[in-house]
Amino acid sequence: MISQWRLRAAFAERLSRMYGREVPSYTTLVDVSREVNEDVLRARGADAERLGSIGRVTAERHGAIRVGTPRELRQVARVFGALGMHPVGFYDLREAAASAVPVVSTAFRPVDGEELARNPFRVFTSLLTPAHPRFFDADLRARLEAFLAARELFPPELLALADRAAAERELPEEQAERFLRLAVAAFELSAEPVDQAWYETLERISAVAADIGGVRSTHINHLTPRVLDIDELHRRMTERGIEMIDTIQGPPAWKGPDVLLRQTSFRALAEPRAMRTPDGDVVTGALRVRFGEVEARGIALTRQGRALYDGLLDRVAEQAAQNPGEARGDIARAVWERHMPGSEQELAAEGLAYFTYRPGPDRPRDGSRPPAGLGALVRQGWVCAEPLVHEDFLPRSAAGIFQSNLSGRGSRDNDRQGAVHDADWLSGVIGRDVLDPFVLYERQQNRSLEEVARALGLTGILR
């Protein structure tokens, strides 16, 4: 029998091989990421594995896909549910980007700490919003919804196998192999000719809308390795002649602790695609919809920490507008060094980041009583704090990556009232709860605190 985590690991590995065949620059990205990680490990030793073992970091991938209808999203949830992956977080990219990006998103991923350590594969999954009047008028919405309703992305056999794997948390080896073949094939780039006129109609509104609703299949838009030094990765990829986007999305590089998520990518490639013209001829065209993303993950921030982070981004934007001649990265670094705590201990003491805690191996054993308060316990060596890695995404960064790889800004009517979509709405669409990442991190932190309290003979909840 093949367990869910082994199915997940095998799916991620096969998807990576498939995407490497389709997009050779992705293989270069993986190779350079591995080189950078090996160099960082040699230079920094055990400190390089502070946020995950090198085995986990090397195997780590996140994919990105786009679907068009609630039905398709429910089917995606069934496929990923077979792999022990749950919808976590709600991301509204419609308002996060200046360009037209008419999607809302969630990420399917494992949620248990042990499962994440075994294989943290996650898929950022975006749903098109045809009902959003800022992008689609009534006529185009009707045409788009009719087109999407007529297609089938996932064969019934795949969905049946997925449901069995989700219910039993494993599959017999032969059925596991069949599931993996069908699942990978569902995300391959189709050779079916694209209706040129229809695609261009949608592309005038949004390149993302065209990529989702202008074809009869779905595909992997990017598959993202994890790297320990994203600035060095960006430099080495550029040296190899691969065009990278201009900026690294997320927090700046600075001397303090890495927090949240930093992302960059090589630019979307002009891939040859068969196109059917209005006259019925099939010609060779090119579409720019897929790109190679890479990420560096930091410490997960609490709600208070995220509020600080968002406020600092606003401050950076304001100062950059006032000082157009100054490099944005330099501005961000200066803002971070003035306002962001410069150590893990300070982040923990101020309640800005999530940690797991365990009794310190060198804690006093002379019969003395532990001090009151979590901060004192950590400072005096009674308790060790280990940071929780940020397993999720950032709306502004995701929108920035999307926007950096679009060929045009598209069009949107900001005078129209936008359709209201939120996490509750998306939960209803999927038919299962979209989990709150803050709750997941806090639950993991609190479990560790309860174990520490028991081990040290303390009463009450540690704060």
From TrEMBL:
Q: Does the keyword Oxidoreductase apply?
A: yes
A Pfam family that this protein carries is HGLS
Oxidoreductase: is it a keyword of this entry? yes
* E.C. number(s) listed in UniProt: 1.13.11.93
Any one GO molecular function term: dioxygenase activity
Its needed co-factors are: Fe(2+)
| EC primary class | oxidoreductase
**Signal peptide bounds:** none
Query: Known InterPro entries for this protein?
Result: HGLS, YdcJ_bac-like
Q: Which UniProt keywords apply?
A: Dioxygenase, Iron, Oxidoreductase
PANTHER family with a match to the protein in the record: 2-OXOADIPATE DIOXYGENASE_DECARBOXYLASE (PTHR39479:SF2), PTHR39479
The UniProt entry's sequence similarity note says: Belongs to the 2-oxoadipate dioxygenase/decarboxylase family.
Protein name (Swiss-Prot/TrEMBL): 2-oxoadipate dioxygenase/decarboxylase
